[in-house]
Design goal:
6-stranded parallel sheet, Rossmann fold, alpha/beta, 7 helices
Length: 187
């Protein structure tokens, strides 16, 4: 089974990518195959609401999203993370979410996948829960099965995420919860 980690940060090597790397390291340690999408390495243009994907089973915009479509479908679970930008996820990850509509319009291809959300903000209460909620809303719209960290909404850290011991515990717990649910699905 495969877990896809998505970092919605335009900054390479930053807090959000560190959170995804930690989550995927845990998944690998538990025997899962992993893959990742780093927005910092992919230019994904915003959806133009042209409607072409209603008729065709593809988006007419050819950019970094082209490879992401297959990765989303191939994954059994998706862990999506974003830094908080003015109280919500980045425009870059929102573009990915909007462009994934082709999977909804053609047989709900992401339905019943496990989904988990993570966010990093500038302070302990820096908009992380609202950002996680937006990510989870995207997952709900696709019909995914959402898990948290076992007691709350998901992985929530403040920057610098690797120095936030309390926050990184929620990242670890979220990754383990995703793995636990996938293990249950194997039985």
């Amino acid at each position: 089974m495969k877990i896809l980690g998505i970092s919605g940060s335009p900054k390479s090597g930053g807090n959000t990518e560190n959170m995804i790397e930690e989550a995927l390291k845990i998944a690998q340690g538990r025997g899962f195959e992993t893959d990742h999408v780093y927005i910092s390495k992919n230019e994904i243009k915003p959806c133009t609401a042209c409607g072409s994907c209603y008729e065709k089973d593809e988006c007419v915009i050819k950019d970094g999203m082209t490879d992401v479509y297959d990765k989303l479908v191939e994954a059994d679970a998706i862990i999506a993370a974003s830094p908080v930008y003015f109280g919500s996820p980045t425009a870059q990850i929102k573009a990915l979410f909007d462009r994934s509509v082709v999977h909804r319009r053609h047989n709900f291809r992401l339905a019943n996948k496990i989904g988990a959300a993570m966010a990093v903000g500038g302070s302990r209460n820096g908009g992380q829960e609202k950002t996680v909620q937006v990510i989870q809303d995207w997952m709900h719209i696709h019909g995914m099965i959402i898990v948290g960290d076992g007691g709350h909404f998901g992985g929530i850290t403040r920057k610098a995420s690797t120095d936030d011991e309390e926050g990184m515990k929620t990242v670890i717990d979220t990754a383990n919860k995703v793995c636990d649910v996938l293990d249950l699905m194997k039985k």
